[in-house]
Amino acid sequence: MTAAFMDLVDVTIVNIAIPAIQRDLGATFGAIQWITAGYALAFAAGLITGGRLGDIHGRKRLFLVGVGGFTVASALCGFATGPDMLVASRILQGAMAALMVPQVLSIVHATFPAHERGKVFGLFGAVVGLGAVSGPLLGALLTEGDLFGLGWRPIFLINLPVGIAALILGRAFITESRAPKALRLDLPGVVVAVVAMLMLMYPLTRGAELDWPAWCFVMMAGSVPVFAAFVAYEKRKARRDGSPLVELSLFRVKSFAAGIAVQLTFGVALGVFFLVWTLYMQIGLGWSALRAGLTGVPFSIAVSVAAGMSVQKLVPRFGRKVLQAGALTMIAGIGLYVWESDRYGMGIASWQMALPLVVMGAGMGLIVAPLTDAVLSEVPREHSGSASGLINSVMQMGNALGLGLVSVVFVPTGLGLAVVESFSGALGWVAAVLAVVFLLMFALPAKPRQHVEGEALEAVEPAAADPAQEPALAAR
């Protein structure tokens, strides 16, 4: 959970410090773009591979390698002597996060029995909520605090004690797990997957900043046949030696396929909302980064509380209705926010935003934890790393698509009041995407299944019940 929190915070904490970084290092606008985009691209491109490496070489081992590498990369970022070193260190950070993050969900899935996973995923949802809005607040506190005269550098250096603690605790308490049958890394599949991801993610990450030149659309369109070629190759690879990079049979599991679709669409909604919300407070209302960060505290608390309740108490009784209630609750919160923004305009106060933010946060909390549980509930344990990598990759793609769509749904004609007025229109688009999320949730299982050991495997691969494979199952 510490690793997931570090990654979530690191994605958002940098944005607050960008002006200070630019002044201190004399970075060009292009270099500043790569400080954020480089991390996102390396992270997205490596997630599927990182998840599969955990299945092959051990999830604990890959987790520790990822945490160690992420900590070293954070130190390099914090002590960067120029923009080139900072960009390179951020790319390394993203690559190490791609090794670290997929192991979090796969370790939970492989280590805990089904009836206990709900509590863990509830905690995971709380961590997601805290990480989503803690980054800007923490970034503002560290940057404006100018600890030891280091300026912006503590936003990276704070990862050092956290990373060291994660290494020590992970080494002591995480149980090693890997796929029960020998798998090999599909190197050609890695190459094709990385190329396809970069062809899609690079223009999504940079397009809005570059005013969407034609090559962005050409590259995104070109990613479609590359993804198709990847799927065709993975099918042949699975038939030939049973060691594909992505286990495509997972998509025959209704809960997994439906959950991935919901995850992608939900990621779009979050990508649009968080960026537009930040621009609204800082550029529209003229608030400081610290005030904007503090305003988000009620949202974070609501997400954490609702996430803990949803998996442990509500989902076992009401099933997918909890997730759908979460989508409708978020839409209601958006309606409240639009009403307050229109009523108070530039004079709106932080406390007046508390109610809509609490409602939206509660709705998000009802979704994030049980959604992860629903996606992984029927996934065979030997493929948990690959599945976890896919979940994280899809969420990254959704967020990137949402960030790209901001330039379409949020087009203020100026600063101040113009930004405030555009905010309401953008939130209307977020509500529309959440309505699509609500409809997609009908494809999720109506009620959670209480699995016994091996039941999830049998749901996807009946042949695994063969007595010849019982020693492998027992070894788990």
UniProtKB/TrEMBL annotation:
It is a multi-pass membrane protein. This is MFS transporter. It holds the Pfam family MFS_1. It comes from the Bacteria. Residues 1-449 form the Major facilitator superfamily (MFS) profile domain. The chain crosses the membrane at residues 31-50, 62-81, 87-108, 120-142, 154-173, 185-206, 212-233, 253-277, 289-310, 322-339, 351-376, 397-420, 426-444. It is found in: Cell membrane. Its main location: membrane. InterPro entries: EmrB-like, MFS, MFS_dom, MFS_trans_sf, Tet-R_TetA/multi-R_MdtG-like. Keywords: Antibiotic resistance, Cell membrane, Membrane, Transmembrane, Transmembrane helix, Transport. It comes from Streptomyces coeruleoprunus.
